[in-house]
């Protein structure tokens, strides 16, 4: 595989982006990895490599670039990354404050810049775009699909945060704009997207417009899908990956 960290120009500056693609000169379909609240780190770069190994160009942008190369990693005595809801308050506040600095308007503008990069790169097939996101990144996946429905045709969300809220730009208000395929992995014990919210979300999806495939994993918590996490569930994650790779094959 071929790896590089490139600079994507945006309205606000330069967004550092990790890109990995298969060897050779053949153009491949793109998959954008939307980071969670913790930011870009080796854990996500490893997932990008996994996706590229399946024949895709994996694109991992740093949405925190306005404040620099920021990421958060707090580990327990077993070298597992501590989940936000298990973290002591002072450290959790640092992470949440960084998220608050990232407005939804900034996110949409940055996604547009990513699509511009995809259009211009000779090694990327730009007609259809895949995505995957965790936590905050799952919310971003939905927003990308709603805002750019003709591009994002294979969307994968894992323990997406609050797909239904009272905000004016909550994803649930425009789910009818989604196209292509959507896979969502949910956690039964998720305090940010509990099963009742998930069921309401699923009831709002117009199945004739998007091919929705969703699973609520029993007995797992928010963050279960990330391999370095203290609450990682390899069984649930394996089921997700089976469905996600099928989604990409079907729609990209």
Strand order in the sheet with the most strands: 1-2-4-3-5-6-7-8
Q: Give the N-to-C terminal Cα separation.
A: 19 Å
* Count, helices: 6
Q: Write the CATH architecture name.
A: 3-Layer(aba) Sandwich
Structure summary, number of beta strands: 8
Oligomer: single chain
Determine the structural class based on helices, strands and strand pairing.
alpha/beta
Q: Low-confidence segments, ≥5 residues, pLDDT <50?
A: none
Mean pLDDT: 92
Q: Summarize the biggest pleated sheet.
A: 8 strands, mixed
Strand content: 15-25%
What pattern of helices and strands is seen along the backbone?
EEEHEHHEHEEHEH
Total discrete domains: 1
CATH topology: Rossmann fold
Helix amount, in percent? 25-40%
List the helices and strands and how they pair.
Layout: E1 2-10, E2 13-21, E3 30-34, H1 42-52, E4 57-61, H2 89-100, H3 104-120, E5 129-134, H4 136-147, E6 152-158, E7 181-187, H5 195-204, E8 211-217, H6 234-251
